[in-house]
# Entry
Amino acid sequence: MNRRSVLTGIAFAGTLHATLARSQSRGAAMPAMAATNLAEVKTAAQYYAGVIGRAEMSLATSAMAVEMTTNKNALEFAGFELGEAVGVNMVLKDIGTTAPKMDAAGMAVIETMKAAAKGASFDREYIAFQLTNHEQLRDLADAYLHNSAGASDPAEKQGRHLGALMLGAFKEHVAMCKRIAGELRA
# Structure
């Protein structure tokens, strides 16, 4: 396990918990968990809009996970995922993407994770969510890259570049979550 990644995740978590608490108390936008019609994702803006809510959920759940997970691989993943979610959210917000308000499904995920006991129960909930989330993000990136093939506008090219980079990470995270989920079932 990479101790630096865990320590970085823990440092992010302290800051993020305070930020999330302030955001929620002000009624700030939180991510929706609604499914995206993949056939309709043809522009960079549509792709970004599909990613940001899931990225914010990943940030919120990973901030909890760096404090609640006990499995070493789940903890390492949480640290890496937290750092990535911070970066993805920063990039998407810098290019003007607005996160939707959290819907009932998103709130249910947060409440389920808050209710899970620290340790194996929480680890399973966290990794199961991350697996599903990354499968959906992978499918979103793949659909966008397929649907936007041939786009020549500079903003769309940039979107395709970001999508291509994200697709690799999403595929990797699906594989990692499947492996960790198997460890947690053993």
